[in-house]
Amino acid sequence: MHRGQQSTEFCWTGKQPHKAGAQNAKGEAIVNMMDHILSIFPRGLFGNNRPPPVVKEHAVPMEVTADEESRRKRTRDCETPIEVCENSSIKTPCLISRRELDIAVPSFLEEDDDVRPVKRFRGLNGILLTPPKVDVERGSVTPEKKLSLTSMPEDVIAHCLSFLNSAGDRHNLQCTSKQFREISNSNAMRIGIRVGGDPVTGLHGIILEDDTPDTAVHKLLPFAVAGNLEALYMLGIIQSYCQRDAKNGISMLEVASAQGYARASYALGLVLRDSRFDDALKYMRMAANAGYLPALHELLPAREMKEKFGEPTADELRRHLDHLCLNRLLSRHYIRSPDLRNLSTSHCWNPLCGRWAFKATVPANGVAAHPHIHRHHSPSYANQSTSGRQTNASTDSGVAPHEAHTHSGVKVSRMKMCSRCSRAKYCSKLCQVYDWRSGRHKMECQFL
Amino acid sequence: MEDAIVKLTSKEGETFDVPRKVAMMSKLVKDTFSDDDDEDDEEDETEVKEVPLPNVTAPVLKKVIEYCTHYQDEEMTPIQTPLKSGTLDELVQAWYANFVKVDRNMLFDLVAAANFMDIKPLLDLTCLAVSILIKGKSAQELRQMFNISAELSPEEQAEAQRENAVAE
């Protein structure tokens, strides 16, 4: 896979051209903004669908390179979900038509004293809201098609569309018509969209190749505010790794985890492994209890895993990795941040993974004096002695990324090393097993 | 009471005799009856009642009744979201999957009828079928499918393109 080669090469040769600076300047604005974003989520509750206006104000300074025009557009876009969500927060179990149902009351009923059906109609009419503009033109163009989906009440269409959950379909809906656009901007629709792309193929994520962490955050924000856990999780990861603000990122992951998103619990289990070991273990167990396979990988000895789940192939494991577009974003960020690489960081050797960690041997900034390093903690939950060769992970002692920059004391986890070659480093067992089963490291290992 | 018959009248005036239990799947019919119960007492339970459905054509009504009748024998499993699969057959039982394999106009009529008669499972099923029609279609195809004349201005179009672009 060409991406794999690219990624590893970048990480280890470190010869890629890169743009320095600008990060710190942006950092301030972003930290500010994220503080406000977090204040939206009151103790893990998403019932509150109303983003405070503050999001809008602080979203703007993030656009460092954007010109005035696109700023205005984006700001306007932030407002849209607010309006929509207020309308759509009224969820009725039965779909009440917002459009005129065009009920032709039969003439025999109008004179009739029979109250039953008339009563029903009266009730219906009482509910009817003001009908939106009726498309006269459309009817006249194709009179033979008397009924099309768009002539139906909006909430029926919304119900139809609510079954769609891929970002690609959303894109097409957005480009189709104004009405579809409004509907697909509703929170009800946003909540179910797979922003990270298709879980099997990894395609169609909303983060593009030319997105920076900042623009990615901007894109994900409306989804996260609507209550989309996948978006919140991705925000949390971007925040922890790219925005020099691991603390906020971790709070986001905690919110997602509290909502029962196993992937977030698992990520927390990895990320907090060095700084808050007990919490990490708690989160990891939480994910494992939810039956999340990678968490079981971390907790159970390799032999037991094999007995219980057999040996999943690389393809089966792949869908547990982070979303492809998210991992690529992390990789790109790593490549383009010279300061990160100069501080002796290790990038996960799994070509599909974008995470990294600092090495403990980092000489600068007095790591040895850092109070948060707990070298006595075993980084692996599983019993090391029972691990097989390929899953036997020993410590490549490391500390969090951004150690030199954050003062939060919350760190992202260190790496594990392949015990056979003592070169390859992985952020998790999942990545290690994946890299081995996919055949890449198996081949590579013997030459290292 | 179990044998009570309800007459459902379509738009054209065609009448269908439907067992009360089957007809009760429609909340519209149910509400009509519960309104009655307040007024006249239970003495005329066996009386044949008639419900006019001026929004539903005969072929559609026939199909709806077919659905409701089958539902009594084999209840449809509720559709789970998020969808696990992209094909109808894997989401609902075979009978229901076949039930919505009809042409597009019929399907839209069914959606409208289900909405009007307020039959939740049928509405779910037909909406699911519609969403599967939509799935994977380009904006151009969607416009053709739903008879939408291009409503977006070029700028809006470009904006939508830019903001919602996905990695291919």
Amount of helix of chain B: 40-55%
**Mean pLDDT level of chain B:** 80
Instruction: Look at the structure and name the CATH superfamily of chain B.
Output: Potassium Channel Kv1.1, Chain A
**What is the rounded Rg of chain A?**
26 Å
Q: Under the CATH scheme, which architecture of chain B would be assigned?
A: 2-Layer Sandwich
Distance between the termini of chain B: 60 Å
Structural class of chain B: mainly alpha
| Mean pLDDT over the residues of chain A | 64
Largest sheet of chain A: 3 strands, antiparallel
Strand content of chain A: under 5%
Number of helices of chain A: 23
Q: Give me the count of strands of chain A.
A: 6
Low-confidence stretches of chain B: none
Counted by DSSP, the helix tally of chain B is 9
Low-pLDDT stretches of chain A: 1-23, 42-66, 71-147, 360-412
Strand fraction of chain B: 5-15%
Indicate how many domains the architecture of chain B comprises.
Answer: 1
- At the fold tier of CATH, the topology name of chain B is Potassium Channel Kv1.1, Chain A
Give the number of DSSP strands of chain B: 3
- Tell me, what's the shape of chain B? elongated
